[in-house]
Each structure stands twice: as C-alpha cells, then as structure tokens.
Amino acid sequence: AVPHGLNLSLNDKWTESSDKYGKFDQLLGHFDKVVLPYEGQRDWYIKNNFPREKLKVIGSTRYSSEWMSVYRSFSLDDEIKYFSDVSSLKIVFMEYPYNYRINEKIVSEDIRLLSEIDGVEMIIKPHTRNNKVYSEKLLDSRIKIDNQTPSIKLIAQADVVIGTTSSIFLDVLLNDIAFIYPKYFHENIMLYETMEACWAVEDWSQLKSAIKKLKLDPSYRPYKAENINKLKRYVVDGSGDKNVLGRYTRFIQQTIDQAKT
Predict the structure, then answer these.
(1) CB burial class (10 A; 0-12, 13-18, 19+) of residue 211?
(2) Cβ neighbours of residue 105 under 8 Å, at least 6 residues apart?
(3) In the beta sheet, which residues pair with residue 94?
(4) H or E element at residue 224
(5) What is the mean pLDDT of the chain?
(6) Which residues neighbour 9 within 8 Å (Cβ) at sequence distance 6 or greater?
(7) pLDDT of residue 120
(8) For residue 159, what pLDDT is reported?
(9) C-alpha closest to that of 81 among 144, 139, 168, 127
(10) Is the pLDDT at 215 greater than 90, yes or no?
(11) Is the pTM of this model over 0.85?
(12) What are the CA-CA distances from residue 225 to residues 81, 136, 137, 198, 234 (Å)?
C-alpha cells in the first residue's frame, strides 16, 4: 500500500467526527508493507497500534522532484489564461471541506472581503476529491469558481495561493508561489506552520495586510527558502536522498526478492 496524498496535520483529531487515522490497522492490516512519505506519519501509525515492522518511510512519489518535473512538462503545455486581468494580484483560494474543523463563517466572510480589494482577482478552487464548493455563501458571491482546471495549472499562473489543509501547498512552496496560511480559519495545526515554511496570519487584519504587501511587491516572502527546503527533505524526500522514485523501485524489488526466498 502506497498512500498518495500527504497528511500534514499534527493534531490527533483533525475532523469534527473522527481521529486522525482511525482504525488503519483494520484498513491496511492485510498488507505486508505500508510505505509512508515521512517519519511523522509513521509515528502516528505506530501510536494507533499499527505494526512497526510493516511500515517503511521512503518519501512522497506525488511531490518528488523526478515526478513533478514530468508532471509539469505535460500539464503546463497550454496557453490558456485563467485570470482575465494580468495587471492584478492573482489569487487562488483552495477551499477544503469544513468538517476538517474549519470555520465556514469566517472563511466565507474574509474570502469575500479579500476579493473586493482593488487590484485583486481571485479564483476559488474547490477540493478536488468532491469537486464542489462547500460554502453556499461563497457560491452566492461573485468570485470566479473553477472546478475544471487542475490545481497545478491555476497555481502556475497565481501570484499567491491561500488555504489551510492540503498537501497541494507543497507544490505552491516548491515553485516559489506565495503561500498565505490563515491559521485562524481552522483549529488544526499544520506542519508547514511549525516549520515556518508559510506566511501564517492570525486574523483578518493580517490577511489584508499580507495581500496589500504582495500588491506592492509580489516577490516578497516572510518565510525563508531554507525552511521550504527543510520541509521538502522531511516530507517529500522522507529524510533521505532526492532519488525518491529510485528508492521506491529498489524497495519494491527487494520485497519481491525476499518473498521468493
């Protein structure tokens, strides 16, 4: 079993109705090996009584340097412009299901206010899995909603991406797009905040100030490239070398060879 997405939350309870990993021993117990992207996720499995000997940390195939270069080569080959005003500050807001302890009232109000700032153009990207906007208040706003375009395409044309709970923000950070993390939108604690690899804001005033700062200087980042690299080494490279796909290949082959003996 090789998980696709990365869970980057640090708290035990990450939704309103369930613990972080629940009964993973029941879901994955029949597998001989479960490969995980980073050590923190392995520790959570062990904490939830999953057998340590079945777990292997290798890294993230989804965000590995090898795969991302291939993915971007065929994903960004069109010339479609997703934002209409090239002179504006182009913002993508990544919505996420509100049962992930996200405050819908605060999110809908502040995102709407943000979209009304002069010189700003915003696109709401719904959560990909369900491909719909969860907030009726955002649906009733005049903000453009794009549930058709892959996130990677919108990110590539954005000046800034805003959101709380998704590993897609790794793509944002690794491609030097400004990432604003409104931590007051939700109750969870995220790894990119604790590793200081995001622009964390505490309230509406700080969020508005961040956007105004980026309007003046779109290249400004309050976080360091060094912190992004540390985050990448930990969650993408699995604290190993950058050849993530090569390590997966070797591990799979070794597992097959061991099964034959």
Answers:
(1) buried
(2) 137
(3) 125
(4) none
(5) 90
(6) 20, 165, 188, 189, 190, 191
(7) 96
(8) 97
(9) 144
(10) yes
(11) yes
(12) 28, 37, 36, 10, 14
